[in-house]
Amino acid sequence: MKTLINIKTDKSVKENAQKVAKDLGLPLSSVVNAFLKEFVRSRSITFSAMPKMTPYLERILGKTEKDIKEGKNMTGPFNSAREANRYLSTHSKLYS
């Protein structure tokens, strides 16, 4: 059995949400239903001003932080863009 929920939201929030849902090929009602199901399942809600990083990005950043601490895989600093470009052109095999 289906039921109807009426909520109040800013017009721009609704329009932007509809656009994103449409870009994903979904009706906004499917997005709201998925959100409500997750809310019921997890019994939690997250508010964030910052987007969450993907696990892939977290792994890359972790490796980068480790390399920085160990002084590995580091180049530069360069004093100019020309100097950086010269380095890249002479080491292009490393970046292809």
Total beta strand runs: 0
Q: How many domain modules?
A: 2
Helix content: 55-70%
Summed over residues and divided by their number, the pLDDT gives a mean of 89
SSE ordering: HHHH
Radius of gyration from the CA trace? 23 Å
Largest sheet: none
CA-CA gap between termini: 57 Å
Structural shape: elongated
Question: What is the percentage of strand-forming residues?
Answer: under 5%
- Secondary-structure-based class equals mainly alpha
Low-confidence stretches: none
Q: Please give the count of helices.
A: 4
What is the structure about, briefly put?
This protein is mainly alpha-helical and 96 residues long.
How would you characterize the overall build of this protein?
It comes from Candidatus Tagabacteria bacterium CG09_land_8_20_14_0_10_41_14. InterPro entries: Arc_rbn_hlx_hlx, RelB/DinJ. Residues 68-96 are annotated as: Disordered. This is Type II toxin-antitoxin system antitoxin, RelB/DinJ family. Pfam families: RelB (PF04221). This protein is mostly helical and 96 residues long. The protein folds into two domains: 11-42, no CATH class; 55-95, no CATH class. It is 56% helix and 0% strand. It contains four helices and no strands. The chain has helices at residues 11-23, 28-42, 55-70, 81-90. The chain is elongated, with a radius of gyration of 23 Å. The protein starts with 10 loop residues before the first helix and ends in a 6-residue tail after the last helix. The mean pLDDT is 89.
